[in-house]
Each structure stands twice: as structure tokens, then as C-alpha cells.
Amino acid sequence: MYGRCCCQTDGVQIVIVTTTGRGAPLTALQKSLARHAPDHRVRLLLAGPRPIPPVGADWLVPPQADLGPYRRGDLLLCHGAEVQRFAALAATIASGVLDEAEVLVLPEWAWCTGPLSDVEVEPGQVHVVPEWVDSRDSPGGRTSGGLLIPEVTSVGRGSSVVANRWLARLADLAPDATAPVMVWGDLVAVGGDVSAMADRSLALSPASLGHAPLLGDDAGWSFGGDPIRVASFPGFEASEPWWYAEPGDVPLRSTADVPGLRTLCRAYADELGESVSRSEATLVDHLVADPLPGVQVTPGMNRAYGQALFRSTMGGPVPPNPYLHGEAPAFLTWWAEQSTRGETGVSTAVDAAWTARGDLHSSFPEIRGRHQRDFRRWLWTYGLNEGLLSLVELPDPPRTPTRLAAPTVGPGASPPAWRAGVNLVGYHSSEVGLGVAVRRVGRALDAAHIPWQAVNYDRIASRQTGTGDRPIEHDYPVTLVLITPDQLGFFVRDGGGRWLNGHHVIGLWFWESDVLTATQRDAFHWVDEVWASTRYLRDAFASAGKAPVHLVPVPLEFDPADTSEAARLRLGLDDRFTVLFSFDFLSVVERKNPLGLIEAFRRAFPEPGRHRLILKSINGELFPRERERILDATAEHADVELWDGYFSAADRMSLVALADVYASLHRSEGLGLTLAEAVSVGTPVLASRYSGPLDFLDDSSAVLVGGREIRVGPGQYYPAEGHWFDPDLDEAAAGLRALADDPALGKRLAAAAAGRLEEFSAARVGSDMARRLGAISLRPN
Length: 781
What we know:
Number of domains: 4
Number of helices: 25
Shape: flat
Distance between the termini: 88 Å
Structural class: alpha/beta
CATH architecture of the largest domain: Alpha-Beta Complex
Radius of gyration: 31 Å
CATH class of the largest domain: Alpha Beta
Mean pLDDT: 81
């Protein structure tokens, strides 16, 4: 059938290498084998650090022999579970317990989709399916380095000699966590009793996908022309069937671009969902996969442990290992305790984080000196939020620096002359919404004839387009800070303290929840008052009760847009009714809710051809998993497109102006800048009836979509106890249909919205700012 076989293997033994002996992937694999290989004996090889024998299963426990001077748990902590599984298989084969029959070895994340009665197995031989199979590749697969552990292996009788060679090779590599473990590649390249299996039917994995086409139909799937019998799904989550990648990597191919793969992943996800309850999966994670509850085993931890282990062979102490019984508490102490010997002079854990994040080196060049306090503060804010370290691993927090008081004038002395004006701090050169906002505030200050200077801050992930327009020439007594509150500490550390200490400081802040974070509440330490540009923001910041909060809008004036036919052609627009939504992946995709809009569009226009939804985004490359999810949602609807990338400011505004509707089913917006842009160029708006945009949108000027307020819940950037909006998608779909069917409705709404926006002109907002600044009692600086 496949043309590559050495012998028939009916009744051959199938060994599944498993860490836990239970869980959804293993159950799904066992069910698939029962369908496609009912005559084979199936055994479980328990390769985990603390195996739990499954009830009623035919199972094996590998011999617990050490690897030279190293314990089996040492290998696991140095190189991870994949190498541990390899070592367990090698030890089991070397013991001779599998010599009674030929063996086909599968990982627990494999899935059987076809018969296994025809696989090459020879006495005394081991055949491996490398990461991909191609005659142009070397026999061992990838030769550029990295981990090379095959997904599928066939083992002939009497292969213990080969297995002992594997174990010897692992013993040589055990302490070096930085060296690529190329065991299979090394052995296959030598030739002899280990060879590559040139059988694409067993080779489908995330690593092989880029090297052969995958096709699917009602009869099954083929990979490189061969009907698939085994596919591998390492790290696969049933809740994310669009994400087919090696753990910690990104997909080589998008499931949205490979219909056969998309169907296959969904079929496997369905089987996973039927295989195990959530409670059992949690039990497995707790007992086996998580030796240090609350602490993630990271590559930095692997590397640091390997270095300590190597030092132990030269007379140093043997470090404790959390995978070995009773050693987890001692390991945490060793990992997080104060140490002055490493790179940072803080602890082994912090040294590992420092090594993993090379970008920190330029931000904190004097890490063992004057920058260490700032680095500790970064760890307790962004490092913790980004999951770089857990609470258990963090060093003692730094003390909050004391803000200096404004200078006073001595008795009898004349106050120094000073000029009223504003130091405007913000992302003046950035294309994010806050960059647009700070430039609009500058226009308002100009309109009110208030002197100001740009203090540019560029610690932000989005693209920069230049620097502040004006050189810094003055030290005005008022500093207006339009950066996120949680960035204030960084701003101070980066030299911005001179604009806060001794000045009247105003925070012009934005936020998208009714509950503030601890870092935001701490930021009130640096400001004398807060300006909120919408009523929603005023209520959110006033809830902290730490500083006066004033409602001071920001200007919502924008440059005119080019709506010529040339602009339409340049942007790739046609005569379909076009719905547009723009968002930044950095702005929390779940809050922006593009998936909700896609679903509403599908309900509104189920038949393709006459309507189009464009999702215009930026920074998708920084969030590949979220981008892949959106691409997956568009895969079955040809009229929905994701345009990810930067446009010029002129082209972006032309796209907004040329769209028939601008739609935003946001869960929350502090201001809603893109909605204001649409209003400014006469594009009708459909939006959630919630949060900041309601200051300039009402039922006379937009199609407002109702819904219900819900808790944010855990797992989000925003506090779990906060609230945001769940828009009614049927109501949104009805609104989109109404706008498509009645062009006059859109024109009436756009005209009314333009009138509302006049309240937010630079001149009117500048007057509001001037009144508030005039009410501030300033001491000379």
C-alpha cells in the first residue's frame, strides 16, 4: 500500500511513551488505535518523574538507572520532558523487556488516522521518522541545531545495543543545558543499525508541515501524497484548534491557509474534548507536570541548574532537584535566595531572567550598581505581569522613592521670574492612540495660546515616526503627563523625574475598566491632579480617591482624507458594501473584540459576494496566537479580511473615509479615538453602547448596540473584578443590515455625529484647558 515496508507487522506491539499515564491526549490516542489498529497490543511506558500507574492498563515503568554521575531527574531538569522521555525509552529497550516483539513507539500526543499494519521494522534495527522527510535533506533531518527527537520510532527485536549507545550519548550531554541534543541525528548520520524512515504517512507534525502539502477530503488526509496514518499534536489545546505549532514556537503554516490541516485539527480537538473531564486534566497537571506549584520551569532554570550540576562534578555541592522526592522546598530556596555571585547580584532566578531578556541589558546597564533598584521595580511590575518571574521568585521589592517638594522662597527674598507654560510629556513620535492624543492636546494648547514644549517618551512597542517637534528650551511650572500611569516609574527612572519633582503635575490618563490596578493607584503618588477626557474615565479615576479628578476633553479634530478614485484603487477597495474596524494588537484583542464583529458580520450577511469586512490591525506579529485565531475565524468567510501592518497616516484616514461603515463592538474604550476619526470624515458608525465614546455618540448620531455589563474575569490584562461590555451580536447584525439596506440612514447619522464633534474642537478644548490651568495656584519654580 505504501511501497516502503520491509515486513508485515500485524499484531506488532505499540508502545505509547507518556508522562502521566492519563489525560485527554492519551485517551484520544488510545481511542484512535482501537479504531485503526485493533489487533495490536498497546502498552504504556510511564516516562514521567513521578509516574502514576493507570488503572486497568498494560503499562511499563522504565528502569531507574542513573546516567553516569547524573540522576534521571537531573536530565529532566536540564533538558526538559522531551529528552526525559527519550531516556526512558532508551533505558527500557536496553533492559530487554521489549525484545519479545517488534515495537512501534508513539508519543502520547500522536493521533492515529489510518491502519498501522504496514510499517518498517527489522530485527536489531531502529527506524526513526525525523522532523521531516525529504530526499534532499540529510538522513537525520534538520542539521542546523536544536532538539531532534522523532515523533514516531520503530524498534526491531534485539535492539538493546543501540539503546545503550543512546544512553551513553545522553550521559555525555546531561549537564550541558545549552547544547543541542541531536541524539537521533548523530546516530543516524553514522549509519548502521539506526536509520531514517522515509515514510511521510507517519511524519506529519508541526515541524514537518512546511515541507509537504497536506490535503483533506471526506475519505481522510494525505501528506506529501501519502495517506496519513499518524499525526502528532505536541502541546495542542482543544480550545485553540487554529494553533498547530511546537510548544513555545509559532506555526510554520496557518491553518487558515491549509484547509486540510484546519479540518484535521478540528477533528482532533473534537476527540480531545470527548476524552477527559477538566477536573482530571487539572489533577494530572498538579501531580506530574507541575513540580513547583506557582513557579514555571523555564529554559533559564534548565540552564542554571545544568551549570550548577556540572560544577558538582568538580567538587561543588549537588543542587536540589524538584523532580526528586522531597527536594522541591530546598530547590526553591536555592533558586530564589540572595546571591552576590551572579550577573545581577540578586539571585539565581533573577540571573536567569536577566539572561533570557537581552533587551534589559541596555535599559539597566549598571545592573549591579545604581540601576539595580530600578530593575527590581521593573521585575515587580512588568516582569511579574509578563510572567518572567513568579511571586515566589521575586526579590524584595524596592522602596518607593520620595517625591521632592516644590522649592520655596526664603523670607525677604524676591521670587525668581518664571514663565507660565506646560511641559507636555507623551509618546509624541508614536503611531499608537496615545501618540495621536498627545499631538491633539498640543493643538489645543496652541489654540489657547498656552506655551508648551514636547517632552518625548519612546519606551513603547509600536512604530515610531520621528521625534518631538520642538526642542526643549524651558522648564515650565506645569507638567502635563500623557503616558500610561504604569509607565510613570519607567519615565522617572529614564531621567524624567526632573519634569515631575518640583512641578505641578497633571496626569492626563486613559484606561478601559472601572477598576484600577495597584500600579495605577501607586501612580497617583506622582501627580497633583488627573484630567479625564470622558465621563467614563472621570468616574474610574475618581474611584481611587487619591487626587482631584477633572473632566477635561481632548480635541477630536483630524486631518481631511483623500477620497478620490485613485485612493480607492491604491487601497484595494471595490464597490462592495465595506465595513471597517481598526485596532492595535497591543491594545488587548479581547477588549477590542474583533471576533464578535466577525460573528455579527456573518449573521448579517451570510451569503458572500456583496459585502466586505476589513479588519485593519497593527502589531499582529507580536501576538501570533491571537492573530492566528482571527485568521481562523475568517477562513470560512471570503468577505472577511485581516489587513495587518502599518499604513501611512494619510492612507489610514482615506481607508476610514472610503468605508461605508466603521464598526466597533468594543468591550470598553476610554475614549474611542478611531470612532471619532470615522465621525470626523463622515463615515457612519456602529458601536457598543458603552464607555468613553458615549460622550460624543448617541442614538441620533450612531447605531448603538446594546448588551450587558459583565465581569472581566481572570486571565486578562485588566483586573478580574472590573467590568466591561458584552454586545448583543444579533442586534449588531441587524444594525449592519439596516445600514447596508438604507444608505440614507448612514448619511443622517454621519451628519448628526459631525455636529456633536464640534464640541471637541481644538479651540473649545483649549479654552477648557486654559480655564483649568488658570485655576491652579502655582509656586514659582
